[in-house]
Amino acid sequence: RPVWQLASLVENIERLQVDKDRQPGDVAREQADGRLCERHREKLHYYCQDDGKLLCVMCRESREHRPHSAVLVEKAAQPHREKILNHLSTLRRDRDKIQGLQAKGEADILTALKKLQDQRQDIVAEFEQSHQFLRERERHLLDQLSKLEQELTEGREKYKTKGVAELARLALLISELEGKAQQPAAELMQVS
């Protein structure tokens, strides 16, 4: 069986050497952190399974803890470490799965956005073609209307000119007939 008291003595000597190099607050910090036994100021190597406490070699050999079941801290921590590692593995798997889903979702969204952009371009091109066709149709119809308007204007001028000439001829005839209507009856009855 290992001589823990001797090992503890060697550790104490080494610690005295290290304590010379340490700052005054380091020992207090180690005690506060729970790395040193409060009673013996030694490293805590054991875990008392009955009391659930960390023990130094001196405490482990004391009357209080000798009959208790004590194991090395590393051995006592192993099941906890394994649980943590299992949880860590599960969490990493979940993280990887979520990252995969995020990447797939991002790729799907980018694909959908690309399709939307393509559809937008198709719609713009189609409407541009329609607008071009309608502009050409509008120009053609307006040209036809302009020709009709010009023909009507020219026809109006022609009819106006003919109308004025006809009115002048009719006015002359009316004037002659009015003049004859004013003649005495005898002259009126003379046929020339």
Note down, in words, how this protein is organized.
With 192 residues, the chain is mainly alpha-helical. It folds into 2 domains: 34-68, Double Stranded RNA Binding Domain; 75-179. It is 77% helix and 5% strand. It has helices spanning 4-21, 24-33, 57-61, 73-181, 185-189, and strands at 46-48, 53-55, 70-72. Strands 2-1-3 form a 3-stranded antiparallel sheet. A hairpin with a 4-residue loop joins strand 1 and strand 2. The longest helix has 109 residues, at 73-181. The chain starts with a helix and ends with a helix. The relative contact order is 0.04.
Topology:
Blueprint: H1 4-21, H2 24-33, E1 46-48, E2 53-55, H3 57-61, E3 70-72, H4 73-181, H5 185-189
Rg, Cα atoms, Å: 60 Å
How much β-strand is present in the residues?
A: under 5%
Mean pLDDT: 84
Largest sheet: 3 strands, antiparallel
Shape: rod-shaped
Query: Helix- and strand-based class?
Result: mainly alpha
* Number of alpha- plus pi-helical segments: 5
Numbering strands along the chain, what is their spatial order in the largest sheet?
2-1-3
Cα-to-Cα separation, first versus last residue: 176 Å
**Helical amount:** over 70%
